[in-house]
TrEMBL record:
<keyword id="KW-1133">Transmembrane helix</keyword>
<feature type="transmembrane region" description="Helical">
    <location>
        <begin position="181"/>
        <end position="201"/>
    </location>
</feature>
<feature type="transmembrane region" description="Helical">
    <location>
        <begin position="43"/>
        <end position="63"/>
    </location>
</feature>
<dbReference type="InterPro" id="IPR036097">
    <property type="entry name" value="HisK_dim/P_sf"/>
</dbReference>
<dbReference type="InterPro" id="IPR003594">
    <property type="entry name" value="HATPase_dom"/>
</dbReference>
<dbReference type="GO" id="GO:0000155">
    <property type="term" value="F:phosphorelay sensor kinase activity"/>
</dbReference>
<feature type="transmembrane region" description="Helical">
    <location>
        <begin position="146"/>
        <end position="169"/>
    </location>
</feature>
<feature type="transmembrane region" description="Helical">
    <location>
        <begin position="69"/>
        <end position="91"/>
    </location>
</feature>
<dbReference type="InterPro" id="IPR005467">
    <property type="entry name" value="His_kinase_dom"/>
</dbReference>
<feature type="transmembrane region" description="Helical">
    <location>
        <begin position="103"/>
        <end position="126"/>
    </location>
</feature>
<feature type="domain" description="Histidine kinase">
    <location>
        <begin position="276"/>
        <end position="491"/>
    </location>
</feature>
<keyword id="KW-0812">Transmembrane</keyword>
<protein>
    <recommendedName>
        <fullName>histidine kinase</fullName>
        <ecNumber>2.7.13.3</ecNumber>
    </recommendedName>
</protein>
<dbReference type="Pfam" id="PF00512">
    <property type="entry name" value="HisKA"/>
</dbReference>
<dbReference type="InterPro" id="IPR004358">
    <property type="entry name" value="Sig_transdc_His_kin-like_C"/>
</dbReference>
<keyword id="KW-0067">ATP-binding</keyword>
<keyword id="KW-0597">Phosphoprotein</keyword>
């Protein structure tokens, strides 16, 4: 190949610059199109790449090369031109998010099928060539002869290019962003192709403009794509800052709401506690007040009533009940407010035997209690606290069995399950109602007759067990209730003689 002074050939230079620009825009479009939401720019890479190839082949028409080389380049140029128009149709459908019609699919297939036909020697391009010179540019163009079939193919491609132009014209009227930019770019290529066709038909001699049109078009489209990317990046940055601010505000609002809810829960619990305390203490306090008033009236008349001792005994009993409520309240407060108890290695069987012995004072011999606890079971915990819990649970179970029954049974069983000690206290009483199951751990909730319970046994027991790292749960159905107490298993030697640290 012999090239005549390409450095001063402006047409040759424009073709190469347009080719480089096509590669740049193709690369940008392909990379941007890989991003989510930017898929419509992928087919712009096809438009830019075919424009780049067209620039390379077009450069041969403005330099001195051998005729076979020129003919091969022009045939490739025709094939690339057909693919370029097909790329425009596909890119327009993608960019404007159009559903392609059947005839548009057929149009694209026809253009793709036309491309290899341009490569066949003698079909589209003849063997003759003419040359003309543009003196003021110092450029001589080689113009191979176009066959009738080649002229028809070129006319078909020119008409096909009108399809994307019409879509962009409608989109521009509809206010679609950058539709006018794409319309101007496509229109520049279409007009330049019409101009170059008239020049090659030797109707007049002008510089060939298609390479210049590709250069301008690719520059405009590349700028539009880059501008959209920058604007999206800025918008994303603003949205990110806004989202961070909203998240911070929402987090602050959630924290405030949570604090308000905790405060409301505490106030509700305090109100519930106050109501329960008032109810439990008012009854014995009313009895004490009535007895003291009765005794005072008798002392005023200097004739003590005959039942004065009974009144004193009732008052003392009421005082004892108030003292019991206060003790349980103090124990519940220590359990909730203190740190977890310092646990020791303890014998579960000793704690169970001691608890059963103390609990029997409340139900005597009317209920049969069976104990199934191995002597080798040891748990981590405070033995006094465990005894207190077991006494509460056993007495509750005994009180759940109707007094008139003679077949009452209590079963206390302990075993090791998966590295933990499980203690089960089962009674054959009436069982719990659904409301009792739901509220059994509420302070002062009780179903027992007046004087038999304060409603603090289970809440205090639950707190004591959890302070030792264990858990307490209740299963109940008609005719049977089982309380499960789980504690951590201990493998240490018996150190129960070590004094347990108790809250003062």
């Amino acid at each position: 190949m012999q090239i005549c002074v390409p450095l001063v050939n402006i047409a040759f230079a424009l073709s190469l610059i347009g080719s480089v620009m096509g590669v740049v825009v193709s690369t940008l479009s392909f990379r941007f199109g890989a991003a989510r939401g930017w898929e419509r720019y992928r087919l712009l890479a096809l438009v830019a790449l075919t424009a780049s190839l067209f620039g390379i082949t077009d450069a041969f028409s403005s330099i001195d090369v051998a005729p076979p080389t020129l003919l091969a380049a022009i045939r490739c140029q025709g094939a690339v031109g057909a693919l370029h128009v097909a790329g425009w149709v596909l890119y327009t459908q993608s960019y404007l998010r159009l559903q392609p019609s059947r005839w548009e699919r057929l149009l694209v297939l026809s253009l793709v099928a036309l491309a290899p036909a341009w490569l066949v020697p003698g079909w589209m391009i003849g063997t003759k060539e003419t040359r003309f010179t543009i003196e003021w540019l110092h450029v001589t163009y080689a113009n191979p002869e176009t066959t009738i079939l080649g002229g028809a193919a070129f006319s078909f491609e020119t008409v096909a290019m009108l399809v994307p132009l019409m879509h962009y014209a409608r989109a521009k009227r509809a206010g679609v962003r950058d539709a006018g930019v794409h319309l101007s770019a496509g229109l520049a290529i279409w007009l330049a192709s019409i101009h170059d066709t008239l020049v090659t038909l030797d109707l007049f001699h002008d510089p060939l403009l298609l390479s210049l049109a590709f250069l301008i078009t690719l520059s405009i489209l590349g700028f539009a794509v880059t501008r959209s990317f920058v604007e999206n990046a800025r918008a994303l940055e603003v949205m990110s800052a806004t989202l961070e601010r909203l998240v911070e505000e929402r987090t602050h609002a959630l924290v405030t709401t949570k604090q308000n809810l905790l405060l409301a829960e505490k106030m509700a619990a305090l109100g519930h506690l106050a109501a329960g305390v008032a109810h439990e203490i008012n009854n014995p306090a009313a009895a004490i007040t009535a007895n003291l008033t009765y005794l005072r009236e008798g002392m005023t008349r200097k004739s003590p009533p005959a039942d004065a001792l009974e009144c004193v005994d009732e008052s003392l009993e009421s005082v004892g009940r108030i003292a019991k409520i206060v003790r349980q309240l103090l124990e519940a407060g220590r359990t909730a407010a203190s740190a977890p108890r310092i646990v020791h290695n303890m014998s579960v069987s000793r704690a169970v035997r001691q608890a059963v012995s103390e609990a029997k004072l409340h139900f005597g011999s009317r209920i049969t209690a069976s104990v199934d606890v191995g002597d080798d079971l040891r748990a981590k915990g405070d033995v006094d606290a465990l005894v207190q819990v077991l006494v509460n649970v056993i007495v509750n179970g005994a009180q759940a069995i109707e007094p008139e029954r003679t077949d009452g049974r209590l079963s206390i069983r302990a075993r090791e399950i998966e590295g933990r000690i499980s203690i089960e206290v089962t009674d054959n009483g009436a069982g719990m109602s659904e409301e009792t199951k739901r509220r059994m751990f509420e302070p002062f909730f009780t179903t027992k007759p007046f004087g038999l319970g304060t409603g603090l046994g289970l809440p205090v027991s639950l707190g004591l067990v959890r302070s030792m790292g264990g858990d307490l749960r209740v299963e109940s159905r008609a005719g049977m209730t089982t309380v499960h107490i789980e504690l951590e298993r201990s493998t240490l030697l018996d150190v129960e003689s070590a004094p347990a640290l108790r809250a003062s």
